[in-house]
Write a structure and sequence with these properties.
Blueprint: H1 5-29, H2 32-57, H3 65-80, H4 83-89, H5 97-100, H6 106-128, H7 133-153, H8 155-158, E1 164-165, H9 173-191, H10 194-204, H11 206-211, H12 216-242, E2 244-245, H13 252-265, H14 270-286, E3 294-295, E4 300-301, H15 307-322, H16 335-364
Antiparallel strand pairs: 1-2, 3-4
Helix pairs in contact: 2-9, 2-12, 2-13, 2-14, 3-6, 3-7, 3-12, 6-12, 10-12, 13-14
Length: about 375
């Protein structure tokens, strides 16, 4: 069933209004812990979309997003910290003079975080994107670890292994969900543009895309840089939500979590990244009770830390085995599909009702 464009616009506006209302109610009624999980889901939506742009839509297997998140987080943190806070934080070695008295508004610092991550991504991607498949994954993973080691040893700039504490808590519910919504809108516009079609052409067949006149190298590096920009913004939002960052937080396991969301939701699906982020973040916290003592009538445990990750991994493994393309595959949400589903449900209910009515008439006869 195909809806008119006017109907789709009305449904979209109503959905946005309903979603804004839900966020408003959640911000004013949920507890701090539940609200933190909700906000963390929004940040991981941004990170999943950034990785999906490279891995899902362009067909490049990158594993270095944790490093670009770290660049964004440290850039925003250093630009928003007050001079007094910097002086007390850098007690082992004074901060570099060019950063000591710098303090910028959060929106400007967030933009600088994305641009710095994009710049580092360009420096990394220019030589690395010549590689393919597993070689590209290993190279980007190596650069991510190099970035983390550099941050650990740049004592006058990053405060080394001690990290940065007491960051302003700018990542409120409205802020993170605004940027998550902006990231979704941006990705939809990007993928439906000529550039997005070029990315998908390279993913499907790089040789054929080049034969059609697509500048493969330029599209790859542009896609990678945009992805790094989004990762830097996501890392900055994550740092300002936690109010503390250190190099050990940005290890490979962080990239693994984002990759997990992309694979579960469906590589090449914006809708899948959104659904995957919500499912993974919420379910990982919901399963936390497995780490404590359990009383299952026949089985009792005193507590097994890490059991929730085992159960979560088994659930994920089951999903991957029976649904290799992810929950959404490469499909996207559309009002036409919703209208078609409602129509099918209505038809099924109509036929079931007729069958029940006929059965009742026969019994009465």
């Amino acid at each position: 069933m195909i809806l008119a464009k006017k109907q789709k616009n009305i449904f979209t506006l109503v959905s946005i209004a309903v979603f804004a209302g839900i966020i408003f109610i959640a911000n004013n009624s949920l507890g701090s812990y539940t609200l933190r999980i909700l906000n963390l889901s929004a940040i991981y939506i941004i990170l999943a979309l950034s990785l999906n742009l490279v891995n899902g839509f362009t067909g490049l297997f990158s594993l270095g997003h944790a490093g670009f998140m770290a660049v964004g987080a440290y850039t925003s943190a250093l630009l928003t910290m007050s001079p007094t806070l910097k002086e007390t934080t850098f007690f082992l070695q004074p901060i570099a003079p060019f950063l000591a008295n710098v303090q910028l508004p959060f929106p400007v610092a967030l933009l600088c975080a994305g641009l710095m991550a994009a710049f580092v991504g360009f420096l990394v991607g220019w030589p690395v994107l010549r590689l393919r498949d597993d070689y590209l994954a290993i190279a980007t993973l190596g650069f991510s670890e190099i970035i983390r080691v550099v941050l650990t040893n740049l004592q006058p700039i990053t405060n080394g292994a001690q990290g940065l504490r007491g960051l302003p808590r700018y990542s409120t519910t409205y802020v993170v969900w605004f940027f998550a919504f902006a990231a979704i809108v941006f990705m939809v516009a990007l993928i439906n543009s000529a550039f997005g079609r070029s990315c998908r052409a390279i993913r499907d067949n790089e040789i054929a895309a080049q034969a059609m006149g697509i500048n493969v190298a330029r599209v790859k590096i542009t896609s990678f840089v945009i992805s790094c920009f989004m990762a830097g913004v996501g890392g900055a939002l994550l740092g300002h939500m936690q109010t503390a960052i250190d190099p050990m937080f940005f290890r490979f396991v962080l990239t693994y979590h984002v990759l997990l969301i992309v694979v579960l939701g469906g590589t090449g699906s914006i809708t899948g990244s959104v659904i995957g982020a919500l499912l993974v973040i919420v379910s990982m916290e919901w399963l936390r009770f497995l780490d404590g003592p359990l009383n299952l009538i026949f089985i009792q445990t005193r507590g097994a830390p890490g059991l929730r990750m085992v159960v979560f991994s088994l659930l994920l493994l089951t999903c991957v085995i029976f649904r290799q393309q992810g929950l959404m595959g490469n499909k996207e949400f559309s009002w036409d599909a919703v209208a078609g589903g409602c129509r099918k449900i209505k038809q099924a209910a109509f036929f079931i009702g007729r069958k029940i009515k006929r059965t009742g008439n026969k019994e009465a006869a």
